[in-house]
Design brief:
Elements lengths: L11 E4 L5 E3 L4 E4 L1 H15 L4 E2 L5 E5 L8 E5 L4 E5 L2 H14 L1 E3 L2 E4 L2 E5 L5 E7 L7 H13 L4 E5 L1 E2 L2 E2 L8 H5 L15 H13 L3 E8 L6 H4 L11 H10 L25 H17 L4 E5 L8 H17 L3 E5 L13 E4 L9 H6 L3 E4 L2 H4 L22 H5 L15 E8 L7 H8 L2 H10 L11 H9 L2 H6 L17
Parallel strand pairs: 3-4, 3-5, 5-7, 11-12, 11-20, 12-15, 15-16, 16-17, 17-18, 18-19, 19-20
Antiparallel strand pairs: 1-10, 2-9, 6-7, 6-10, 8-9, 13-14
Helix pairs in contact: 1-2, 3-5, 8-9
Bound molecules: ligand TNX.
Length: about 500
């Protein structure tokens, strides 16, 4: 008996020998309204026919409190399908699993007889989208939410500011979007989110059981502020590395007060010893906290090469306290782990390699909890193959699908086990990525490997957590992804299933 292919792999799955459930003209979905609407649109996309929606359906979707958060049970036989979620998120994930189970059988559509009991390994399962290097429209962000939530991700980290731009309107600092949002890398068009746009994204994410984790990156990655509030900023620090990047990737060297559309990092810094900087951080994060229902605010802290170590530690400590005092949990890239006085609950985001180098693991160990984003595995902006037009290679790249899959979260940072790991997040930086087509080309299918690291049992806990199993299961997602309009590239590492 072969098990039906699912991604991410559920905690437990058992096939029964029974006949499959057949979808037909009389199929009716009943139960929880929101989950039913999600299932109806999924089945319509996959099969071309929307099932009915009413009482006493043969597909029943219900919430029964008491199970683990986000968990669900799915039981299918020839007579009925019952999906029971412990909460609305769990039921939504059961619906996503059901969508993956539907397959053609001759002219009919069936769901195999199966019993699945599923719950996530990690509470935080994130994707990050950099909307600063290339602006991404609200519709593109929503499309990425669709894709990520279908793989059971529950956090969308939005990288909202960088050297190239500031993308979120703030009443307290209106010049940021008036003067610092009009460009992207390579001189491509810019843009920004109004407060209404941001609220729209947050609400759409919530409908898909995702929180938004907004980031304003500081104290470096802040050149854009020089166009709006130049008094807050130091002069750029330009070294040979920057000259090399400008020579190899194009773009001018940064000049304060002028849009920067190159790809170098680490040259800018807020003035650390000026109280006006902390007034700015308090305004920006205060307004962001008021707009953000989720518990986390990310303040960056990466690659601050133009800031002395002492100044950096002082800055990240103070800003983490500002965020903590707003009632939010601060998140920072792992570099901030060098500071002794961070707010206690600060979460560190590790972006070193699967095998840590340069003491990056020491920095990560300084936090109470970490989010793992190993760059040589799940940085979705790394070229998937050497010949890819899109993407970068600095993280030991290119990064094959196999490499994106072949790592175990609890093995990355010695001494950190599941209790110390808040979760896993796959970042997508957008220096080379302009739109949804590019996003699909880079994120898929590797985003599914990140989903499995975040959701599924540890590699030591399940014999199906292997590359051989994963590549077959991902290959079976092809028709569903196509029906959902996802432009995944036909990676030759994957045995893609086609229908007809
Ligand atoms: C490093 S990793 C960055 C980003 C770049 C990315 C490109 C990290 C926290 N910062 O500023 O966009 O590399 O891959």
């Amino acid at each position: 008996m072969t098990l039906p292919p699912l991604v991410p792999l559920p905690a437990s799955i058992a096939s029964t020998d029974g006949a499959p459930f057949r979808l037909g003209a009389d199929t009716v979905v009943s139960g929880d309204r929101d989950a039913a609407a999600a299932l109806v649109s999924l089945l319509e996309a996959r099969t071309g026919t929307a099932p009915g929606d009413g009482e006493d359906g043969s597909i029943e979707l219900r919430i029964e409190k008491g199970g683990a958060p986000e968990s669900y049970v799915l039981a299918a036989d020839d007579a009925s399908i019952v999906v029971t979620g412990a909460d609305p998120a769990g039921l939504f994930y059961g619906v996503q699993t059901l969508g993956q189970l539907v397959r053609p059988d001759g002219a009919a559509w069936v769901v195999p007889a199966v019993r699945i009991e599923d719950a996530p390994r990690f509470a935080y399962r994130g994707v990050m989208l950099d909307v600063a290097r290339h602006f991404q429209t609200v519709d593109t962000v929503k499309a990425y939410i669709d894709r990520a939530s279908g793989l059971k991700f529950n956090a969308l980290h939005l990288h909202l500011s960088d050297d190239q731009s500031w993308r979120l309107q703030l009443d307290s600092r209106p010049l940021l979007t008036e003067l610092s949002s009009s460009s992207s890398v390579g001189g491509d068009p810019g843009g920004f989110y109004t407060k209404a746009d941001y609220a729209d994204i947050v609400a759409y994410a919530a409908d898909h059981h995702m929180i938004v984790v907004p980031e304003f990156d500081m104290p470096s990655h802040t050149h854009a502020i020089t166009l709006a509030y130049p008094e807050l900023m130091e002069e750029p620090v330009i070294d040979d590395h920057m000259r090399e990047i400008a020579a190899s990737h194009g773009g001018e060297l940064p000049v304060n007060g002028v849009d920067y559309d190159g790809m170098a990092v680490g040259f800018s810094s807020l003035k650390i010893q000026d109280e006006a900087t902390y007034d700015f951080a308090a305004d920006a994060f205060g307004e962001l906290a008021a707009m953000t229902p989720g518990p986390y605010l990310h303040f960056g802290g990466d690659e601050s090469l133009a800031t002395s170590d002492e100044d950096f530690d002082e800055f990240v400590s103070r800003v983490s306290e500002i965020i903590s005092n707003l009632g939010k949990i601060p998140v920072a890239w792992h570099e901030a782990g060098s500071a002794k006085d961070l707010a206690d609950d600060t979460v560190g985001q590790y972006w070193g390699f699967v095998t840590p180098t340069d003491g990056m693991d020491d920095k990560a160990r300084a936090f109470a909890q970490v989010i793992l984003s190993p760059a040589d595995a799940i940085y979705l902006d790394m070229k998937p193959t050497a010949s890819s037009d899109l993407g970068l290679t600095w993280a030991n790249g290119p990064t094959s699908v196999e490499r994106s899959y072949s790592w175990e979260p609890s093995a990355v940072i010695e001494g950190l086990d599941d209790g110390d790991i808040l979760g896993v997040e796959a970042p997508l930086w957008t220096e080379t990525i302009k739109n949804l087509d590019d996003i699909d080309a880079m994120a898929f299918p590797r985003i599914a490997a990140a989903a499995e690291a975040a959701w599924s049992p540890a590699t030591t806990e399940s014999e199906l957590r292997t590359w051989q199993s994963f590549r077959e299961r991902v290959g079976a997602m092809g028709p569903l992804w196509t029906s959902l309009g996802i432009g995944f590239p036909a990676s030759d590492e994957i045995p893609w299933v086609t229908e007809e």
